[in-house]
Every structure is written in structure tokens, then in C-alpha cells.
Design a protein that fits this description.
The chain is mostly beta strands and 295 residues long. It has helices spanning 2-24, 42-46, 48-51, 220-225, and strands spanning 38-39, 59-64, 68-69, 76-82, 85-87, 93-94, 96-97, 104-106, 112-113, 118-123, 127-128, 135-141, 144-145, 152-153, 158-159, 167-169, 176-177, 182-187, 192-194, 198-202, 205-206, 211-213, 216-217, 228-230, 238-239, 244-249, 253-255, 265-267, 278-280. Helix content is 13%, strand content 33%.
Length: 295
């Protein structure tokens, strides 16, 4: 009886030592790996008892089936037998296919994305992402995209304010404005702002925008053909919309319409000038005219 107990004790000690020595000298086995949506070379399956279990330090290559990749995004992977088993654990992850998106667009034209790869998208004017921004980014994860990209209509919000001719919005222009927000318009140099300079976002629409009316630039040729000169000297021949312009006739000429008060006065009207006309003034009988004509 005592002899049997001694044998059992020595057996336990021997197995423990063998296990420790096996681990130290590279004899820890790794069995045939089971890879979902992946596989190894066919001959490993055909001669499983010959190749497996593999010892510590042995390496093995595997491939993912179509539509799947390794964690690093490649089609093929390589694993090593360690004391804890295969490292890294062989896994195949499904690729992420570009998701559908309404009222927005993606920056990338690719259709398939590897694990951890990111996809950026933006929403059309008047629409926002789930986070309330105009654009966002989703990431391909093992279970699929980090979230479903979407663009929702912004109730009450306004898109960028309208562009006006010969004018601009003062300050930076945003892609979206909350209900009640306002912007201010300014006109280009010499242009006259007609209408409200401040417009408001009201329940998704902007209030009436102003108009920038063109200035009038006097044409010297037109002035000469009508025998006109400016009554008041000025460096520039530019007048804003609505400005009064006063002419006088050249020496020896008089205005055609003398019955109206201030016949030499006209007004700039959205870039257009109606020039008054001066004719040659006649002298007394039997005397020459006070001006000459180029016939």
C-alpha cells in the first residue's frame, strides 16, 4: 500500500516536471485553429494528425474568404504558436460596404472599407447629421459601421444665406443657421444698398434680401456729343444710384428744354444716365452763330 502511494507521488512530480520542461524547450502544442470565415492550406486539414499539434515557435499562415479581412485589413494573416496558444488569435472580419445616404454625399468614391477604416460624409444644405453638424465620420468596426450615417432636415433652420449680385454677407458664412439667426449684407464699392441690410432666418427661410444697385459712370463721349460739361468739378466721374448730377452747356450752347426748372440736372438711376442736350445758341439777325458745327 505504501509502495503504491509512493509511485503515484512520483508520477505527479514527473508529469509536473515534464510539463515545465516542455514549456521551456518549446513543446507546448497548438491545435488546428478554427477560423470563422477563414481557412489554412488544404493539406493541413488532410494530414491533420501529422502537422498538429504544433510546437511553440511554429508559424502558420491563413487566408480570409472573399468579403473578409484580417484585423490589419489584409486578406492573409500569419500566426505563431506561443505558450498561451496561437498569437494573435486568427480572426476574419467582414468588410464594411458603403451605406446608403439620403440628402447627403460621401467624400470617398470607394465601395468597400477595411476594419477601422473611416468614411466621411456631408449633408446637403438644410440638413444635419445625428450630432447636429453639417458633416460627420463613421468607422468600420467588427460589427459594422460605428453608426448609420444620416442627414435629417433641420426644422426651422436655414441654409446659407442667398448670394446677391454686387454684394456679400458681412463676416464668415455658415452652412446652417438656427431659427432667429441673422446676417448682414454689404455692397461692393460705389454700389447702393437698396432694402434691409439685415436679414433673418425665420422658420427655415430668409427674410427679404437687399439689392445692390449699380453706380453711374459718366461717359465723356456722350457728354461731348450733347455739348455738356459738369457744373461742379470732381476727380471721379462716378455717381451712386439716386445721386443728382448737374451739367451745364459748353460756351455758345444752351439747353434744349428751357421751360423746365434746372434743365441741366439729372439723376443716376441704377447705372443709367439720361443726358440733357445742349444746342448751338443763335445770335442776333445777320450775325454768325456763336458756335461752329462740324459738318
Amino acid at each position: 500500500m505504501e509502495h503504491a502511494e509512493v509511485n503515484v507521488g512520483w508520477s505527479c512530480i514527473f508529469l509536473s516536471l515534464f510539463s515545465a520542461l516542455s514549456s521551456s524547450f518549446g513543446y507546448t502544442p497548438c491545435d488546428l485553429p478554427q477560423i470563422e470565415n477563414g481557412n489554412i492550406a488544404q493539406y493541413y486539414y488532410s494530414f491533420k494528425s501529422y502537422y498538429f499539434p504544433m510546437h511553440k515557435g511554429k508559424k502558420l499562415s491563413y487566408s480570409c474568404v472573399v468579403g473578409y479581412t484580417t484585423e490589419s485589413g489584409t486578406q492573409d494573416g500569419r500566426i505563431t504558436c506561443t505558450a498561451e496558444g496561437w498569437s494573435p488569435v486568427p480572426r476574419c472580419y467582414r468588410k464594411c460596404t458603403k451605406p446608403p445616404l439620403e440628402n447627403g454625399s460621401f467624400y470617398s468614391t470607394e465601395m468597400d472599407f477595411k476594419l477601422h477604416e473611416k468614411l466621411q460624409y456631408k449633408c446637403n444644405p438644410g440638413y444635419l447629421t445625428p450630432s447636429g453638424a453639417t458633416e460627420d465620420t463613421v468607422q468600420c468596426q467588427p460589427q459594422g459601421w460605428s453608426f448609420q450615417p444620416s442627414c435629417t432636415k433641420t426644422l426651422g433652420n436655414c441654409a446659407s444665406p442667398p448670394v446677391i449680385e454686387n454684394g456679400a454677407v458681412l463676416g464668415p458664412v455658415l452652412a446652417s443657421y438656427k431659427n432667429g439667426s441673422w446676417v448682414e449684407y454689404v455692397c461692393h464699392h460705389y454700389h447702393f444698398l437698396d432694402g434691409p441690410s439685415t436679414v433673418y432666418c425665420h422658420q427655415g427661410n430668409w427674410t427679404e434680401q437687399p439689392t445692390c444697385l449699380e453706380p453711374c459712370t459718366l461717359n465723356v463721349t456722350d457728354m461731348d456729343s450733347n455739348n455738356l460739361t459738369l457744373k461742379w468739378r470732381r476727380e471721379e466721374l462716378i455717381f451712386l444710384h439716386g445721386d443728382l448730377i448737374e451739367f451745364e452747356c459748353k460756351q455758345g450752347y444752351s439747353f434744349l428744354q428751357t421751360a423746365i426748372p434746372s434743365p441741366g440736372r439729372t439723376q443716376c438711376d441704377q447705372g443709367r444716365v439720361n443726358y440733357p442736350k445742349c444746342l448751338c445758341r443763335k445770335r442776333a439777325v445777320k450775325r454768325k452763330p456763336s458756335c461752329s458745327f462740324n459738318l
